[in-house]
Amino acid sequence: MNDKDILNILIHQLSSYWESYDVNILEACVPAALNRVVEDFSASALGRVFDGDKVIFSPYHSVTWSIFLYYLSNTIFGNNGEVKEADMIYYLNKIMNSNDWFYPISLPIHFMAEHVIGSVLGRATYGDYLFIYQGVTIGGNWRNGKLFYPTLGKNVLMYANSTVLGDTFIGNNVIIAADSYIINEVIPDNCIVFGKSPNIELKIKSEEYIKDRTSCIWKW
Q: What predicted TM-score, i.e. pTM, was given to this entire model?
């Protein structure tokens, strides 16, 4: 499927909700967004995104399309600032996939999800190789009169309904268990996190162990 086909699908979807938008902005940014998807997925170990060695881009795969819409809104924002087309694509992603991935945030080069429904990826510093499941929340929290945002290291896997908020540092090679709630914590490298702040539990592992656990997601 070529850039023009993708653009036509996008225009059809946008036209279901809005009458006025600049097709030239969309046309200029779709190729770059598609290239970002290909670069992202090229590091994946998930067989469904490949045909041999070639990355498959399917607009009919909801996770693929959701990631594309984020990249597109972020690319439009980077090229044009806060224009309505960036808002429209961001909103379209909300409507279609029930997520909130705001276009000014900088998700990493390699970012994937198994399910995107109910996920909120807010302002934070994101390390490369982030993988999330449904209901994940990352965002800010006020502390001592100041708004803090998390920092996530490289190779962070967040299972369903896990939350990272506020003045939190997540190290490299960290698996966050389902339903965990982490706020204003420092999480070391190479571990699995359970529970809810301030009573979280850590299982310290080796880098090799965590990478083995995530090798079904990424090509290490």
A: 0.95
